[in-house]
Amino acid sequence: MKIGCPKEIKPQEFRVGLTPTAVFELTRNEHSVLIETNAGGGAGFSDQDYRNSGADIAETSEDVFATSDMIIKVKEPQAIERKMLREGQLLFTYLHLAPDPDQTQDLMDSGCTAIAYETVTDDNGGLPLLAPMSEVAGRLSPQVGAWTLQKANGGRGVLLGGVPGVEASKVLVIGGGIVGTNAARVAAGMGANVTVIDRSLTRLRYLDDLFSGTFKNAFASAAVLAELAASADLIIGAVLVPGAAAPKLISKSHLTTLKSGAAIVDVAIDQGGCFETSRATTHEDPIYEVEGIMHYCVANMPGAVSRTSTIALGNATLPFVMALANKGWKQACSDDIHLLNGLNVHAGDLTYQAVGEALGIPTIAPGLLLRTVA
Fold this sequence. Notes:
With 374 residues, the chain is of the alpha/beta class. The protein has helices at 20-28, 47-52, 61-67, 79-82, 101-110, 131-148, 178-189, 201-211, 222-231, 306-327, 329-335, 337-340, 353-359, 366-372; strands spanning 2-5, 32-36, 56-58, 70-72, 90-93, 113-116, 170-174, 193-198, 216-219, 234-237, 263-266, 287-290, 293-296, 343-346, 349-350.
């Protein structure tokens, strides 16, 4: 198979879809790999690194899209990239379609087959290709939240861990999944007074057993959320509904009940955000203010630590990339229900129910689709 990896063009996105290690594995299995020049520069991989692993280097993204059977990326294809997709081509990347009707329609119109990292599943009910970036974003969120709280950035001017004689900042983490657990762990390690809330008592018991004494937890009722949010210096939104738009947990009217200069970090922004006032920002211009509350809503947080993120993501995606390359998408998805769960678009049809419900578009079940594809 001819596999292509273009340079990411989303603002301040420094990750790359394939590492030299992945290229080596693909080429030793007799696949050809085409990497756009300087695609790995932001993650510390040179064109020569890719050549040494067996890849060819393309001068433009147009060359990559025009000659490749499968495109491997990190972020969702931007509008100019979607115009280069073609019927029968396979796209494997993060998509986050639920809050993005334009991308969804463009992918359907292109006739391509698109498999989304974030909806591939595993035997434990997890999301193995989302997990490494959730770990990175979770661990980053207290770090960027602490920066947002600095007075020069419009925040309350408080130190997350306090100092002797001055109390630590209060951090509320909404959601006890991978993002929330990593966020709470790092925030507590920075000395903050941390509470995690979640609607799963099973998850709360697990967190209490594992981290008892490190941070507190509470059941996420509306009243508890309102009470804890009002006293928090930093709120980290870490909720996830796989493949669907994130629920709005704090409304604009609720902002007036928060401390002036408090910070919100919305890690769910890729799925539309879990605060009503969230809108996607970039690493170049990451924060904005609404009702005296500072919002950090960068849509590609792991891109800030691009080398760590690229290697972590590559470790997780490589087995699936190899399966798709060796077998083709149909056989690979037939052999692996978890990869089939990643199928979002094929030949003009939407195949992920949660996206269809969010956007009001009819869907076809991927299992049924497999039986009808020649």
